[in-house]
Write a structure and sequence with these properties.
Distance between the termini: 33 Å
CATH architecture of one domain: 2-Layer Sandwich
Strand content: 15-25%
Bound molecules: siroheme, iron/sulfur cluster
Radius of gyration: 23 Å
Strand order of the largest sheet: 1-2-5-4-13
Amino acid sequence: MSSLAEPTDNFSKNESIKTDSHFLRGTILEGLADQTTGAISEADTQLTKFHGIYQQDDRDIRAERRKKKLEKAYSFMIRVRVPGGVSTAQQWLEMDRMADMFANGTLKLTTRQAYQLHGVLKGNLQRTIKEINEALLDTIAACGDVNRNVMCNPNPYQSAVHAEALKVAQAISDHLTPRTGAYKEIWIDGKLIDEGQIEEEEPIYGKTYLPRKFKIAMAIPPSNDVDVFAHCLGFIAIVEAGKLVGFNVTVGGGMGMTHGNIKTYPRLADLLGFCTVDQAVSVAEAVVKVQRDHGERADRKHARLKYTVEDLGLDKFRDLVHEHLDFNLGAPRPFEFQHLGDRYGWSEGINGKWNLNLFIQNGRVLDSGDFKLKTALREIAKEHSGDFRLSANQNLLLGNVEESHKARIDEVLRAHGVFDPHTFSGLRLNSMACVALPTCGLALSESERFLPGLVTRLEGSLDVAGLREDEIVIRMTGCPNGCARPYMAEIGFVGKAPGKYNLYLGGAFDGTRLNKLYLENQTEDEIFAALDPIFRGYAQERETGERFGDYVIRVGLVKPVKVAKTDFHG
Ligand code: SRM
Ligand code: SF4
């Protein structure tokens, strides 16, 4: 296939929407001005994703509005990119203000180190995005068929290697950001330039951009906090004699699948090779270009990089990457991961300042009854001049805190009912749920609103078994798209229908193995009845240091998934 391919009859509808959009302009501005509806046109709903915006409706009141013959309660979700998750206290205050002024009063910290605002009405979209940009944040490429937010461990002060890796992640992010002027024209200037003046081209993407979304993560062993193998492209930091010498490059990870369609499956990335620090940006561009030219453009369910790698084979894929480089990748170097997830509590950075990793249940920042998380964080942001960093697990790190300020932060949190993370069970601290209902249009079941209660119930079993402190990774999504990376969890739930979940077991604690379907269509009571004896068995029969995900495989509850294409559904 030639590069920068022109759409053919065979291509999916999204391909012509992209080609005809004048580099993502479409008719978005006209749609925003149309006051007869709270929605925008179907084609523009695809294009606004590239600008970081999703049209949604409140599904809690969908049926009621249908009965009353009213238009759906349309609003928009805005995703704010934060490469490597590092934002400032001032930016936090701005996001907090905008959540109250334009959105539903909550902030959502995502599984990919971004902020989300939910419930923004069409009439407020331009103003909100302009103000986000004034806060030196942006939303372009937070969604859409382009490279998204580049993930990296959010604590650059953990070591010099962390600081260097974050810089590389941010350089990759800058390099792969779309160049179109459409974003500035629509959201900042409120006026498009004349069609004849549109000269810009997308040197990396071309006018059809990528076949599908593209995701990059950078991991610094022994922490696999970013779930590097779940990403299209991954960089694993290789440290020799205390210095960052380069990265192992991984390709072909991804989570999304469709119930009942075994041609779709989650897949772990393969190790492609090794590159030096200076080569990383070029490698990222080369991999993106291979996907641009060889990724599937007819069937969007087969269009992610994981299928390109699977279909071409790793060796052929590597050859194609080399065609875009003036060097070859080296052989992957040894590394070892020890865990997914975040390490909670206070830690001292190499700059002598302190960092506090807080547990934010499912990434939702809100005030509810005596639990006033949103107010507490606002108060801290007003007094604290350091960073507010977003983790890859929907959590928050207060970074660069003076030693003298630690007690004050603890006091503000306590006064607002926000507990020290160490008071939570190991299961809860390793839990993640995607948004799902009421905003996600693709949800088949609850997730964010359901998992906390389920965990409380399971904690009863864990207490009896003496496992309260044990770290077990548990994740839930309201559909098989995999937004909370449930197929990497030791215990994974995937929504099948209202109140029913598929239960997956056997992921690895360090994120190096997919889990496998154990039981289908389970209600809450059935889930509890299934897991209770397994927890007891684990407590009694586990070998020294044996993780829950390894135990369920050893005792034969599920088979290990070695080759995703054949084993995951097999
Ligand atoms: Fe996701 C679509 C939320 C991380 C795989 N995801 C969606 C949409 C936008 C629904 C839609 O298309 O209408 C959800 C919006 C819900 C809402 O109301 O906010 C949504 N995804 C999320 C977030 C907010 C979940 C969360 O609770 O944190 C995460 C935002 C990340 C970010 O900041 O960019 C989020 N989504 C992920 C991840 C995890 C990751 O990337 O590490 C995955 C699995 C990894 C992957 O991409 O393979 C993921 N989201 C999907 C998919 C399935 C893609 C596929 O290959 O099949 C969809 C649906 C689609 O693209 O067609 C999707
Ligand atoms: Fe929505 Fe499904 Fe993603 Fe959950 S996993 S946010 S239900 S698309």
